């Protein structure tokens, strides 16, 4: 079966990528404490909080500086593993065999220097080399289901072909040839990732490139901003043919498939949001204008009503004056008589 691996080929030349290229650098410990000091008060909470908990069972911290340094290096390995696995909901902790003997007994920890992984109702002991790379690889394997259920004839055929040779050497030669033919595009790099050979980088790259690395992936990355495009595979168990790979890479490098396409979608979404905001502002302005017009009409109506009332009052006053004049005339007639 093909031994899959990561292959980086900058299109400018076959030299390593610059350290400033976002997303392609090796993860460094960020200084944040993620590994818990497990004791009788917090071990139950840690087991309930995470789907999987990884505990390092160690002896009392030694007095000699050399042994203390070795202990610190072990703790640093756990911290780096906890950092890259942070998105996987895996908790990490250390249990002192002397100070936390009761907790160790409850959890069934026996061998000092071993790592115990708690998943559901199972306890798995890790006795391998205690390095971040091997530990992360072990934990990623535990995340996968141990048994795959074959549901149809297509999956059965894929299972039967799993042991077939996929001619990895031919893929390698195609990648080299295409890279040499496109040395005028220095900002793009061809990437071939095998999750089995770089377990420490898997969570980091999945977050950066937004790609599923539980299976091999082939893509092209823009090293200036880590934008990437990945080849779609109809059958995740099979890599594409050499000709399909060559055609796809040439489409990417020629611009037919663009690593910036996702940025255009995001920009369009932002523009749509801005347009919606502008429409809302226009609607608000129209509503305000309508309110002003309505208020003006109400004011005009009120003024008209007031004028009508004033006219009615004037008419009433005139009628009263006429009545008074008639009364005066009657009085004059009485005096003449």
TrEMBL record:
Q: Where is the composition biased (Acidic residues)?
A: 259-337
Protein name listed in UniProt: Calsequestrin
PANTHER family linked to this entry: CALSEQUESTRIN, CALSEQUESTRIN-2
- Subcellular localization(s) per the UniProt record: Sarcoplasmic reticulum lumen
Provide the coiled-coil residue spans.
none
Write out the entry's keywords from A to Z.
Calcium, Glycoprotein, Muscle protein, Sarcoplasmic reticulum, Signal
Which GO CC annotations does the UniProt entry carry? sarcoplasmic reticulum lumen; Z disc
Choose any GO biological process term that the UniProt entry carries and state it. Answer: regulation of cardiac muscle contraction by regulation of the release of sequestered calcium ion
What the record says about family reads: Belongs to the calsequestrin family.
Task: Write the gene name.
Answer: casq2
Instruction: Report the function annotation for this chain.
Output: Calsequestrin is a high-capacity, moderate affinity, calcium-binding protein and thus acts as an internal calcium store in muscle. Calcium ions are bound by clusters of acidic residues at the protein surface, especially at the interface between subunits. Can bind around 60 Ca(2+) ions. Regulates the release of lumenal Ca(2+) via the calcium release channel RYR2; this plays an important role in triggering muscle contraction. Plays a role in excitation-contraction coupling in the heart and in regulating the rate of heart beats.
A Pfam family it matches: Calsequestrin
Q: Which CDD domains is this protein grouped with?
A: PDI_b_Calsequestrin_N
**What ranges does the record give for the region Disordered, renumbered to this chain?**
255-337
Q: Which GO terms describe its molecular function?
A: calcium ion binding
Q: Extract the signal peptide range.
A: 1-20
Family matches, as PROSITE patterns: CALSEQUESTRIN_2
State if Lyase is listed as a keyword. no
Q: Species name for this entry? A: Dicentrarchus labrax
What's the main place this protein lives? other
Q: Which Gene3D superfamilies match?
A: Glutaredoxin (3.40.30.10)
């Amino acid at each position: 079966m093909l031994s899959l691996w990561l292959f980086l080929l900058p299109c400018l030349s076959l030299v390593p990528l610059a350290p400033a290229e976002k997303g392609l650098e090796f993860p460094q410990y960020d200084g944040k404490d993620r590994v818990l000091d497990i004791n009788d008060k917090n071990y139950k909470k840690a087991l309930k909080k995470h789907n999987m908990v990884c505990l390092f069972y160690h002896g009392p911290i030694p007095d000699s500086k050399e042994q203390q340094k070795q202990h610190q290096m072990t703790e640093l390995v756990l911290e780096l593993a906890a950092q890259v696995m942070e998105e996987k909901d895996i908790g990490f902790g250390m249990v002192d065999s002397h100070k936390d003997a009761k907790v160790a007994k409850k959890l069934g920890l026996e061998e000092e220097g071993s790592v115990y992984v708690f998943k559901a109702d199972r306890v798995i002991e890790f006795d391998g080399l205690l390095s971040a790379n091997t530990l992360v690889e072990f934990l990623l394997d535990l995340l996968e289901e141990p048994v795959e259920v074959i549901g149809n004839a297509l999956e059965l055929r894929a299972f039967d072909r799993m042991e077939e040779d996929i001619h990895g050497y031919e893929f390698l030669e195609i990648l080299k040839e295409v890279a040499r033919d496109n040395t005028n595009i220095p900002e793009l790099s061809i990437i071939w990732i095998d999750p089995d050979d770089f377990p420490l980088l898997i969570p980091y790259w999945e977050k950066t490139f937004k790609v599923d690395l539980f299976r091999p992936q082939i893509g092209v990355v823009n090293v200036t901003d880590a934008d990437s495009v990945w080849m779609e595979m109809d059958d995740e168990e099979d890599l594409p043919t050499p000709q399909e790979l060559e055609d796809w890479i040439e489409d990417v490098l020629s611009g037919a498939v663009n690593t910036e396409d996702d940025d255009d979608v995001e920009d369009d979404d932002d523009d749509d949001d801005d347009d919606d905001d502008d429409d809302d502002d226009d609607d608000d302005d129209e509503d305000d204008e309508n309110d002003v017009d309505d208020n003006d009409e109400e004011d005009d109506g009120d003024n008209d009503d007031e004028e009508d009332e004033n006219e009615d009052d004037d008419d009433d006053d005139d009628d009263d004056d006429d009545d008074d004049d008639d009364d005066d005339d009657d009085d004059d007639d009485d005096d003449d008589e």
